[in-house]
Specification:
alpha+beta, four-stranded mixed beta sheet, binds adenosine-5'-diphosphate, binds magnesium ion
Length: 334
């Protein structure tokens, strides 16, 4: 059925029935002028939003509707994770191109609901409009964090180690595989990177754990590439840094697919983005505690660099060569 035949309210009705039941924090979900949600007593509220647009952030040539729904929410959860917080309530605005089928929007909501269940998010409302161009989804998400646990980008100190929560470059390798029709069924390696691109995981448990235990001094999620996120931490902290290229982790799959693409896996890891791993800074005497704690959380953190005094600037160390570290990565307005 076309959406035109169903109308806005008919569609909202169908979609809201797809969503998981909300938690007991929600007094009123979908169905009034606003949602009504209880505050978390004694906590700070976090509030974030991220928009994804067809042919800018995803293409329906390769992305399933379920993955578009999943990713739209997961990228927001990742931002809450990077503050050391816990996600709470989301509102979902969707701009729908003329001619789309109700079933297709329902599939977006299946992915969205799976993601909401995975990370404990209540979907409490939204807006549904027509788009004269492509499909647009914007999600705003609240979260909460204890006032003494919130993790800013600005806390890095010279001498801190820079760590990442897992391997990088998989998302861009997955995008390459999708765009170039590398087969997804016969190779575990290709399936893995495609899954990272289409159904990214937010490092929610890990972010919260690091924050609660007070193990790190600053944190950021890697949406735009490691180089860019580390530079953000340095700018916010008034510090410099060095990144060691040989320490930057990427998987065998990334190496193989980069070879097929004639690209450098290191460039993908540094500038690729959308891996949604966490990058964080750790005081030297906390490194062992982080390694021990994070292993328990089934993630493999690695040291990739060091924070320096601001006068030293930001560098990339490759063997004995020292280059100026630039953000690279994706910038919408460049
Ligand atoms: P209003 O006109 O008061 O802004 P709407 O008619 O736009 O309300 O929406 C009716 C209800 O449906 C509201 O609770 C709104 O939050 C919810 N809603 C609208 N669109 C969506 C959507 N795409 N996903 C989830 N909830 C939605
Ligand atoms: Mg109203």
């Amino acid at each position: 059925m076309k959406i035109k035949e169903l109308g806005e309210f008919g569609l909202i009705n169908i979609l809201s029935r797809k969503l998981p039941d909300t938690s007991n924090m929600v007094i009123k979900g979908i169905g009034d002028d606003t949602a009504v949600v209880k505050p978390h007593a004694g906590k700070l509220m976090l509030l974030t939003t991220d928009m994804i647009i067809e042919e800018v952030h995803f293409s329906l040539r390769y992305a399933s509707f379920e993955s578009v729904g999943w990713k739209a929410l997961a990228v927001n959860v990742s931002d809450i994770a990077a503050m050391g917080g816990t996600p709470s309530s989301a509102v979902v605005s969707i701009g729908i191109p003329e001619g789309m089928e109700v079933k297709q929007i329902e599939r977006i909501y299946i992915g969205l609901s799976d993601c909401a269940r995975e990370y404990g998010v209540d979907i409490v409302g939204g807006d549904t409009v027509k788009s004269p161009g492509g499909l647009v989804i914007n999600i705003a998400l609240t979260g909460w964090v204890a006032p003494d646990k919130v993790l800013y980008r600005s806390g890095a100190q010279p001498g801190d180690y820079i760590m990442v929560s897992g391997p990088l470059g998989r998302s861009v390798a997955g995008l390459y595989a999708l765009n170039n029709f590398l087969s997804g069924n016969d190779s575990e390696m290709i399936r893995e990177v495609i899954a990272v691109h289409l159904f990214p995981r937010a490092r929610l448990k890990e972010g919260r754990f690091l924050a609660e235990k007070g193990l790190v001094t600053s944190m950021n999620d890697i949406s735009d590439g490691l180089a860019s996120e580390v530079i953000e931490i340095c700018q916010a902290s008034g510090a410099g840094c060095e990144l060691y290229t040989e320490r930057i982790p990427y998987t065998h799959g990334v190496t193989e697919i980069a070879a097929i693409a004639g690209k450098s896996p290191l460039e993908w890891a540094l500038y690729g983005g959308e891996d949604f791993e966490l990058v964080f800074t750790v005081c030297e005497n906390r490194i062992d505690a982080v390694q021990a704690a994070m292993d328990k959380e089934s993630c493999l953190p690695s040291i990739v660099g060091r924070i320096l005094p601001t006068e030293e600037g930001c560098s990339l160390i490759e063997g004995t060569a020292r280059k100026v570290l630039t953000a690279g990565g994706y910038n919408h307005f460049k």
